[in-house]
Amino acid sequence: MTPKKKGSSAKEQDPAMVRVDRSADAGKVDQSTPLVPIIRTEDLSVSYGDFQAVEDVNLDFGKNEITALIGPSGCGKSTVLRSLNRMNDLIPTARVSGSVHYHGADLYSEKIDPIQVRRHIGMVFQKPNPFPKSIYDNIAYGPRVTDMKVDNMDDHVEQTLRRAALWDEVKDKLKNSAIGLSGGQQQRLCIARAIATNPDVLLMDEPCSALDPVATLRIEELMIELRENYSIIIVTHNMQQAARVSDRTAFFTVSIDEDSGDRTGRLVEFGATSHIFIDPSDKRTEDYISGRFG
Amino acid sequence: MATSKRTTMAVDAAKATTQKLYKSGVDIKGELFRAVLLLSIIVAVGMLGSLIAYVIWRGWDRLDWNLFVNNPSSIFLDTAGFAPAIVGTIYVMLGVLVTVVPIGVSAAIYLEEYADRTRWYNRLVEVNIQNLAAVPSIVFGILGLAFVVRGWLNLGFVAFAGSLTLAMMVLPTVIIASREAIRAVPPLIRQASYGLGATRWQTIRHNVLPAATPGIITGTILAMSRAIGETAPLLLVGATTFVLFTPESPFEGAYSAIPVQIFQWAARPQDEFRILAAAGAIVLLVLLLAMNSVAIWIRARLTKDT
Fold first, then answer.
1. What is the pLDDT of residue A2?
2. Residue A60 — very low, low, confident or very high, per pLDDT cuts 50/70/90?
3. Is B190 exposed, middle or buried (0-12, 13-18, 19+ CB in 10 A)?
4. Cβ of B196 and A130 within 8 Å?
5. How far apart are the first and last CA of chain B?
6. Greater model confidence, A18 or B51
7. Integer Cα distance of A7 and A97 in angstroms
8. Which residues contact A283 (CB under 8 A, 6 or more apart)?
9. What range does the domain containing B296 cover?
10. Which of A77, A96, B32, B283 has the fewest CB atoms found within 10 Å of its own CB?
11. Half-sphere exposure of A14 (CA within 13 A, CB side)
């Protein structure tokens, strides 16, 4: 299957797929809050070699909101997440078409430096991955490599750790290796590390899947606190988590081509989390959420 | 109290299960396999041990101060020494170290982090590095004679010419070991660094190289150990068998090396020379052990930090 060209999506879209009218649906919990987009994707398609991972994604991610991307394995939600800060560039076979708008720029335009993109759109990964360095150096790494103007690095590290609600636990062992922390602490350190460069968007790829329920709860509380200052996009397999923390939810699924058997990820429905979880417009969303498939 | 039939059956069943948990005889195949493994170790260590023991037994009497400070002599057999060869070997090895590590590690970084493996020239380089590791050392000697001693570099018969020749020989070892070490750095660490807006060079400099250093040091130890014992290529690039003075520097003057000197003395008929050769072998072994100990110490310090 070849990636579709920009603009051809409307005609070729699966007629069975019911798209949510965003103007009617846009809203937080009460479905009336207007969405102020910080990132907008237009006909975003990503392929790896011959494999079309995800096709024609049109999504608006709200400023100072938490957007959850949910769906069964292989639906392309992680791929979409990684294309928002050009992490897919690290995979040599990955090809992206369509556009991702951020602050008036198309992140996939020739003129864009992917390094600068990642300095503004931070990322937290599935498995806690602190550097095998001290806690202090983990936080200071981002500001150092990006030549960020920091008056006093000690203060910056402290403020960052406070914002990530980790300061009290680590203030006496800043020089110790981050590898000695518990899994949950490591993941909160990774979140702190990501916000140390003052990004305005945080991408989180299943950040709690390797953590126990208590650590998960702490991360969720932290996300809700961080929403004040950051826009968060989270991929999760845990639907309770999406329901608990997110303002809006995008549901993806795998569509299988009847002739070729190719599997491609597609966006099914996007809307306020309350709407998606209580009164989804699409049958597939309802089936997934109620546990009938996926 | 009378025990019912049911209780008896239950107790019997439990007993039968317990019985199965006890060891039943000896696992012959397993024990046999273990014996074979143990035998292999004994053969390997035994051969090495007896070699070392023999050399020490033969050379012990001449392991005196003269060995280290005197020049070789065919007249004063009892006081002849290894001084020029020891200095020569140290010069040659330092030269190998300063050339092979930067070049080998840089090549490994390029192949692992930058090279696009779909390009034919990168694949060609990879295949050739694997093959180079298997080229006989004498071929590198000829190469050194043609391009280092004479030809392009025209260094003449000096210690550094020997260094470059040996460096060519062990370069594939260092490249392959460094590549393995770089590849073993978890992709998660790289992603974390890129995700924070680090450039490729920053990621390599601050994360990949520190994590790969212990592996790189291991590869360097192997390479240096192989180089220190080489004789054949050095004979071709001017390590003379009989030097009466220590070389002035790595870049001027005739030089020798311990294995070359051992080779020369071991071939002579007088028993004194054979003993001297054995003593030389001890010096070589001690130098090798000292070199490796330093490297292992550095590696242990680096691994402790992280």
1. 44
2. very high
3. buried
4. no
5. 67
6. B51
7. 11
8. none
9. 66-305
10. B32
11. 17
Among residues B24, B39, B61, the one where a domain terminates is B61
Given a cut of 50, whether residue A10 has pLDDT beyond it is no
Residues 6+ apart with CB under 8 A from A286: A280
* Per-residue confidence (pLDDT) for residue A7, from 0 to 100: 41
> What are the structure tokens assigned to B266, written together?
């071991």
Q: Is A104 left (phi over 0), alpha (psi -120 to 50) or beta?
A: left
Q: Which residues of A touch B196 (CB under 8 A)?
A: 118-119, 122, 141-142, 145-146, 193-194, 197
Residue B31 burial (CB count, 10 A): 10
CATH number at residue B236: 1.10.3720.10
Interface of B to A at Cβ within 8 Å reads 116, 118, 186, 188-199, 202, 206-207, 210-211, 306
Segment A86-101, tens digit of pLDDT: 998 888 889 999 999 9
pTM score of the predicted model: 0.78
Nearest residue of B to residue A198 by CA position? Answer: B196
Give the integer Cα–Cα distance in Å for B250 and A36: 71
Residues B56 and B124 both lie in one domain = no
In what helix (H) or strand (E) does residue B221 lie, and over which residues does it extend? helix B209-228
Average pLDDT, chain A: 84
CB atoms within 10 A of CB B297: 10
Task: Give the nearest partner residue to B198 out of A122, A145, A179, using CB atoms.
Answer: A145
Mean pLDDT of B157-182: 90
ipTM of the predicted structure? Answer: 0.82
pLDDT of res. A292:
67
Average pLDDT over residues B173-178: 93
Mean pLDDT of A64-76: 90
Please give the Cα distance from A231 to A243 (Å, whole number).
Answer: 17
Higher pLDDT, A1 or B305: B305
Query: Which among B189, B199, B202 has CB closest to A131?
Result: B189
> How many structural domains are present in chain A?
1
Q: Which of A3-7, A32-36, B205-209 comes out lowest in average pLDDT? A: A3-7
Let me know if residue A230 belongs to a domain.
yes
Interchain pair A146, B197: CB under 8 A:
yes
Number of domains forming the structure of chain B: 2
CA distance B43 to B260: 29
Helices and strands: H and E segment counts in chain B: 13, 0
Q: Residue A267: beta bridge partners?
A: A252
Residues from chain A that touch B206, judged by Cβ atoms under 8 A, are 141, 145
Q: Could you tell me the end-to-end alpha-carbon distance of chain A, in angstroms, rounded to an integer?
A: 24
Residue A216's domain is classified under what CATH number? 3.40.50.300
**Strands A94-102, A37-48: pairing kind:** antiparallel
